Amino acid sequence: MKRKLINIVANTNFETRKVRQDLEDKLIKRDYKISKTFDHEAELTISIGGDGAFLKAIHNNRFPRMPIVGINTGTLGFFQEISPEEIDEFLDLYENRDYYEEQSYMLRADVYTKNRKFTLHAINEVILKGKDSKIIQMAVEIDENHLQNFAGDGIMVSTPIGSTAYNFSLGGAIVYSTLESLQMTPIAPLNSRAYRSLKSPIIVPGQTKISLKPTSRYRNGSLFVVDGSEKEFWDLLRVDITMSNKYIRRLVFKKDFYWHNLKDKFL
Fold first, then answer.
1. Residue 245: alpha-carbon gap to chain centroid
2. Would residue 51 show up in a list of annotated catalytic residues for this protein?
3. Which of 51, 153, 227, 240 is catalytic?
4. CA-to-CA distance for 212 and 215, rounded, in angstroms?
5. Helix, strand or coil for residue 140?
6. Residue among 42, 116, 49 at smallest CA distance from 77
7. CATH architecture assignment, domain 106-245
8. What is the CATH number of domain 5-98?
9. Does 106-245 match 5-98 at the fold level?
10. Three-state DSSP class for residue 62
């Protein structure tokens, strides 16, 4: 790994550009080199923006192995620990190695169509839903055990670190970010004489396999969403979801940051 080399990834709004310039000036004064392009041998990646910028930094750069830390110039900023006013303090703590690393596992989705298999990874969540705001029907299996025939807007499977994102707005549980688990949360499930769908989320161990199998009518009438990015598959047969062997390494500088952040953002 190249020492003193830093990646900076950022959105392009006015506030972020100002913060980026300030950060770059301070890094150069401390004898750091800033990579002109994303360098996978850099010692650290700094994301400037909101949670969207953080997610893009990881997805667009093929899930890098070096640690990542965020400076928040967005609205929610649940991933971003540092405020623009704390840059000097952050750099002092970083140089003194006064921090710890937190590993947060991602999930893996193996998507099977009639002719192909695709493998995708998500930091927050994946969703199988109907196209054009229509309902979808699917069989749901847990470790190849049939659980339910679901009907509704869709089903989300989220990671612990994603439990505070869309999952939370759907009434899902908040799960501590380092636990190895998956959460399956229904989206507007139908319950009537014709349909019986679970209304509550289910949390399972990370090694569990969750399988979503759309009925034949919906194999060409569904969307698969990965961290907010929609993907359409023709002749979709099933999606198998497990915890990935990929993870992100986040630098944490405040021992109680998770709980203060949770209270600050949601209560």
1. 14
2. yes
3. 51
4. 10
5. strand
6. 49
7. Sandwich (2.60)
8. 3.40.50.10330
9. no
10. coil
